[in-house]
Amino acid sequence: MRKILLLLSLVILTSCSKQEPSKTEIVGRDYLTNLINKPATDRVQVINFWATWCIPCVEELPAFVEIDDKDNIEVILISLDDVENVDELVNPFLVKNNITPTVKLLDDPYAAEWIPMVDQHWDGAIPATLIQKGSKKMFYNTSFTASELKSEINKFL
């Protein structure tokens, strides 16, 4: 009986600690502007631009899930999917793939105006990632493996 109670307690504890998948929040350019112009000083912010239709983006998502909320790291996934696909495509994708970091869908059709705000050399291709803490910022227009992402984040810790 004691073993059963111990096993039951362990199952309950592990199921309670599991994070729920994120649900997408639709945001406009003001959100992105504030995020980039007023970066956190107490934690590293990892801002990844992605879409469900982008194969390299989807392949690298587990690396972002792995580092989210560890060692003062905040991951924000900015989806560039079409806003009308949030309920039918994006949110089910997040559940299916257990994507737990914060997910925002940028609803701004004027990419030519907000892309240079992220990085003046960015051509808009995804995946792309901005890592920032305070006044230090580094932009990457490439996909990451988990070890590559951790290595770049360590430059901010």
Structure summary:
Helices cover 42% and strands 21% of the residues. With 157 residues, the protein is of the alpha/beta class. The chain has a six-stranded mixed β-sheet with strand order 1-4-3-2-5-6.
Q: What descriptors fit this protein?
A:
157 residues; alpha/beta; Glutaredoxin; 6-stranded mixed beta sheet; 6 strands; disordered N terminus
User: What order do the helices and strands follow?
Assistant: HEHEHEHEHEEH
| Average pLDDT taken over every residue | 90
Label the overall shape.
globular
Number of helices: 6
Largest sheet: 6 strands, mixed
Structural class: alpha/beta
Strand order of the largest sheet: 1-4-3-2-5-6
Radius of gyration: 17 Å
* CATH structural fold name: Glutaredoxin
Helicity level, as a percent range?
A: 40-55%
Number of domains: 1
Q: Give a count of the beta strands, DSSP E runs of length 2 or more.
A: 6
Poorly predicted sequence stretches spanning 5 or more consecutive residues? 3-17
Ends: how far apart? 47 Å
Can you describe this structure?
By secondary structure, the chain is of the alpha/beta class. The chain has a single domain, classed as Glutaredoxin (3-Layer(aba) Sandwich). Helix content is 42%, strand content 21%. It is built from six helices and six strands. It has helices spanning 2-17, 29-37, 55-67, 86-96, 111-118, 146-154; strands at 25-27, 44-50, 73-79, 102-106, 128-133, 136-140. The model is unreliable at 3-17 (pLDDT under 50).
